[in-house]
Design brief:
single chain, 181 residues, mainly alpha, Four Helix Bundle (Hemerythrin (Met), subunit A), 6 helices
Length: 181
């Protein structure tokens, strides 16, 4: 009985080694069929598929504005630490949210206002420009920083006119944007 177990184990191990050897031999023969050159071939750069950041669909206008504010802070930190990938992803999120702002806005008079539509279009364009600068092979941090200022200026201009304020001319508790003085 022990003899049968030992022979079975030996046969199994032999079969595994045979499979490994056959696989190794076929890989060698595939390499041998290529013409030999004396030059070392540089490693081919594989360009990864352009990955888009996961963007959570905002449930309403307030959630959208909070997401824009959150991503502005992310970009601010990314610019300080020179983290181009993070800045690029956050700028793409802001661009996406700008494209959804009008449809998510509950106030009809804002949605239909020409300047409001223009600010949304500008925000989408400026955030896309920031995304592209941050996504450059060699990011130019001075240009990225200036473009980030343009993006935040676009936010501020719209908020100056459209953000609801309390009786002290300040943003309501829990709201986004900057306070008026």
């Amino acid at each position: 009985m022990n003899r049968i177990i030992i022979l079975t184990a030996f046969a199994s191990v032999s079969a595994v080694f045979a499979l490994i050897a056959v696989g190794h031999m076929s890989a060698q023969s595939a390499n041998e069929s290529k013409p030999a050159t004396n030059e070392a071939k540089p490693a081919e750069e594989k360009k990864p598929a352009e990955e888009k950041p996961a963007i959570e669909e905002p449930k309403d206008f307030e959630a959208l504005m909070k997401s824009v504010g959150k991503n502005k802070l992310i970009i601010k930190k990314a610019v300080s630490s020179k983290d181009a990938a993070t800045a690029k992803d956050a700028a793409e999120k802001i661009r996406y949210y700008a494209s959804k702002a009008i449809e998510k806005d509950p106030k009809k008079e804002r949605r239909e206002a020409k300047d409001y539509k223009e600010w949304n279009a500008a925000m989408e364009k400026e955030a896309a420009a920031l995304r592209d600068l941050a996504g450059a092979k060699t990011p130019d941090w001075e240009k990225i920083s200036k473009q980030f200022e343009t993006v935040t200026g676009t936010c501020d201009s719209c908020h100056d006119k459209y953000e609801e304020k309390d009786e002290d001319n300040k943003k309501p508790a829990g709201g986004g944007g900057k306070k008026k003085k």
